[in-house]
Amino acid sequence: MAVQGIVEGLPWWVKWIAVPVLVLVVFGSLIMSVLGWVIALAFKALLLVALIGGLIFVVKKFTSSSSKGDW
C-alpha cells in the first residue's frame, strides 16, 4: 500500500515506461538466464517424451511382427 502512494503522483510514462525499462536493465540478465533454463528444460522434457514414445513404438512393432505365440 505504501508503494501505491509513492507511485500515485508520478506521470503515466514513469509508471509504464521508465520503471519497466529500469527493471529490465537491472534484472535483464537474470530474467534471460531463467527464461533460457526454462526453455532448455521444456525442450529436454519434450525430447525425452519423443524418445520414449519412439522406443515403445519400435519395441511393439518388432515384438508383434517377429513372434506372436512363442512365450
TrEMBL record:
Transmembrane segments: 12-31, 37-59
Superkingdom per UniProt: Bacteria
Entry keywords, A to Z: Membrane, Transmembrane, Transmembrane helix
UniProt name for this protein: DUF5326 family protein
